[in-house]
Hints:
The chain is an alpha/beta fold. 32% of the residues lie in helices and 26% in strands. It contains eight helices and 13 strands. The chain has helices spanning 31-41, 78-86, 95-106, 164-167, 185-206, 216-220, 224-235, 252-262, and strands at 3-8, 12-17, 20-26, 48-53, 56-57, 64-66, 90-94, 114-120, 124-132, 135-141, 210-214, 242-245, 268-269. The strands form three sheets. Strands 12-11-8-9-10-13 form a six-stranded mixed β-sheet, with helices on both faces. It has a five-stranded mixed β-sheet with strand order 3-2-1-4-7, with helices on both faces.
Amino acid sequence: MSAVGVDIGGTFTRVAVDGTVVARWRTDPDYDRQLAALAAVVPADPAGIGVSVGGRVDPTGRAVTVALNLRGYEGRALRDDLADAFSCPVRIAHDATCGLLGEHEYGSLRGADRCGYVTLSTGTGYAVRLGRGGHFVATTTEAGHQLVAGNDRPCSCGQVGCLETLTGGRALERAGTRLSDVDDDAFWRDYAAALARGLANFALVSGVDTVALGGAVAVRRAGLWPVLRERLADILTYRPLTVVPAALGEDAPLSGAVVLLTAPEGSVLH
């Protein structure tokens, strides 16, 4: 029997079986069609399915409550629907939380007691993990929707001035060009400055001392790092923050979805 990991992102979905990616497709905004696509690739009689989803999950871990880039998934009992379809244990969590679990288990956050994970992709997700060994709490925060002074851009969440409008891929697409493909040094300096402020606020409020950056933007933009670290050093004079690339890259949420299956009950807050 196989352990299955599923990463349902705002743009792409991927499925891994026993650690090997077996399928990837553009996420279907229609919930029922997406479930049918999963049914076509998940093997029979899986031992369990862990799901990373680009949306917030209700406190019971059953249903997607808010998915700004996948509105058709809101209010749907994803955990129960998959458990009924495959007759196996299923756990689901926000993709930032899963990325955090993956990086702490296998990547650049191993051994860290106070750490965070940030995904820079379709949206901007932040998660925090506090605790040692199996005694920890991990949860997604709303740091991507912190309000930035002087920012008058409307966000898909309904607020005006969210950090995500300055760092999220979908919010910053230019005439059909993906954010990761934008080639403009001035743009990326401004991007790094906005991200540095957001990371500084996240660290100061949550108490983390190490943050891993993942997602398509962080992975593909090597030139982002020197400017980001310089800006952080200028801002954080009170408490320094170590920022590192996610060692698992874009695979962090997918790996974390499998880790989720064995995470202690109560350790992951939705």
